[in-house]
From TrEMBL:
This is Response regulator. InterPro entries: CheY-like_superfamily (IPR011006), Sig_transdc_resp-reg_receiver (IPR001789), WalR-like (IPR039420). The keyword Glycoprotein does not apply. It comes from the Bacteria. The lineage of its organism: Bacteria, Pseudomonadati, Pseudomonadota, Gammaproteobacteria, Alkalimonas. It comes from Alkalimonas delamerensis.
Length: 381
């Protein structure tokens, strides 16, 4: 007959023990009987039971350790959660039965035990315990899956939020801060080097500085996109490098997941840095244009002012000439001497006007050269 189940049985009454063991063996059970807890302790029981144990039966009043203490000890040091414990005792008071369940009992039979009932109860109790264990395991797995799903959902949400908020980064220091905030949601510590200008911009989430860390991050760029050493992982992109200082290398599954998620987190940073550099270049260009425009506007105002003075001076000369001519004409008859005097006045006026005109033209030529140079520089920038 094939063995149905293996049982460890504690009973100090020899006649009762022999009767129960014989009945169970006849029904196909393998039984290891102990009249008391062995001196060798749990190890002695393990040596006697080479095969896996399916159930433990315990009397309460045993020599040495009582059944309650044995139950606790076996559960602490040996029995798995799917092995039931059945108490068989002549004690029938409620407090005795309650004490047994507090010690870890799964069922309780009052002596004298009916052998046929015992043969039927044992397989059912073993099956019930295994079903409870399987259900508990399934619930644990389901809870873990739910927790992992919620955790991954939270972390994926952090990735999506990060890609939204970095579009509002005001400068590179603000961008680094947003990167630290996002990485911190994964319970990770980080440093970042941004390659935005002639000198790298180095930031650390605890605001400290380490020249050795900066050198190692710079050197890691030559080792590819992802380089790991112990708990340190370096993620290098075109415009930046991120160092994670506390990767969970003892948890291989979590470690692999985090590497993928950090890559997802960082994939959009290069594009954001490039857009910020373009915006800064455009801003600098606009500032140069504004400065040049102010200079040109000032020159134009000066030209207009001098042109106004030129016009006023010219008009005044002509007016003076007309006044003088009128005065001469009133006082003199147009004899030769008077005519010559009039011509002299006219010639003086024309000469003065010519000099003023030539001076203005020279100034205009100089300004034209300056303005041409400024315009060329404006176009080049």
């Amino acid at each position: 007959m094939d063995c149905l189940h293996t049982i460890v049985y504690f009973e100090d009454e020899t006649e009762v023990a022999n009767l129960v063991v014989h009945s169970l063996q006849k029904a196909g059970f393998r039984v290891h009987h102990f009249a008391s807890f062995p001196e060798g302790g749990v190890d002695a029981i393990k040596q006697a039971c080479v095969e896996p144990v399916d159930l433990v039966m315990l009397d309460i009043n045993l020599p040495g350790k009582n059944g309650y203490d044995i139950c606790r000890l076996l559960k602490d040091e040996w029995l798995s959660e799917q092995v039931p414990v059945l108490f068989t005792s002549g004690l029938m008071a409620d407090e005795d039965i309650l004490h047994a369940y507090e010690a870890g009992a799964d069922d309780y039979l009052v002596k004298p035990v009916r052998l046929h009932e015992l043969q039927l109860k044992i397989p059912k109790l073993i099956q019930q315990k295994r079903e409870q264990f399987d259900a508990s395991e399934q619930a644990s797995v389901a809870m873990k899956m739910a927790f992992d799903a919620m955790k991954n959902s939270s972390e994926l949400g952090a990735i999506l939020r990060f890609h939204e908020v970095i579009q509002q980064a005001s400068d590179f220091a603000d961008l680094a801060r947003l990167m630290f905030d996002a990485v911190r949601e994964f319970e990770l510590e980080s440093s970042v080097v941004l390659l935005c200008n002639h000198e790298p911009l180095y930031f650390r989430d605890d605001e400290s500085k380490s020249s050795l860390e900066l050198e190692s991050m710079t050197a890691a760029r030559a080792k590819g996109r992802l380089y790991s050493w112990k708990r340190f992982s370096f993620f290098s992109y075109d415009r930046f490098t991120v160092l994670i200082r506390n990767m969970p290398i003892d948890d291989e599954e979590r470690y692999g997941t985090l590497k993928d998620q950090i890559c997802l987190l960082l994939n959009g940073v290069d594009a954001r840095i490039n857009s910020m550099l373009v915006a800064l270049a455009e801003q600098a260009k606009q500032q140069k244009i504004s400065s040049i425009t102010k200079v040109l506007a000032k020159l134009v105002l000066e030209i207009e002012h001098e042109n106004t003075e030129f016009s006023a001076n010219f008009e005044r000369i002509i007016a003076d000439m007309e006044t003088n001519l009128s005065a001469e004409l009133c006082e003199f008859n147009l004899i030769e001497a008077e005519e010559q005097s009039l011509l002299n006045i006219v010639n003086q006026a024309v000469t003065a006007a010519t000099q003023l005109f030539e001076t203005s033209m020279a100034n205009e030529a100089q300004r034209k050269v300056v303005m041409d140079n400024l315009l060329q520089k404006l176009v080049a920038d």
